[in-house]
Amino acid sequence: MFVCMCHAVTEEQVKREIDGGAVTPRQIAKGCKAGTDCGSCVRRIQALLGEHGARPCPTARLAAKLGLAEPVEAQAA
After folding, report:
1. pLDDT tens digits, 15-24
2. Could you say which DSSP state residue 24 is in?
């Protein structure tokens, strides 16, 4: 199934990026260009990151701790 129609990136390609160490949508984009055009796939990329055990980046944890964002645990749900 395609995740990013703009660059024809499949779910499997995104999962490979995650398996390769990507933990943020930006790192996914750097590896396969998903999310770099219209951006409509970014939420699906975030969901895949959560589903496949990618840890939230330190910035997200800090923002949650400071009350600037919802808790990291809630973001993954």
Report:
1. 999 999 898 9
2. S
Cβ contacts of residue 38 below 8 Å, gap of 6+? 6
**Residue numbers of the domain that contains 42:** 2-76
Distance between CA atoms of residues 56 and 58, nearest Å: 7
- How many Å apart are CA 40 and CA 32, to the nearest integer? 15
The CATH number of the domain holding residue 28 is 1.10.10.1100
Contact 42, 31 (CB under 8 A): no
Domain count, the chain: 1
Q: What distance in Å separates the CA atoms of residue 11 and residue 49, rounded to the nearest whole number?
A: 11
* Residue 6 confidence (pLDDT): 96
- pTM for this structure? 0.67
Cβ atoms of residues 70 and 39 within 8 Å: no
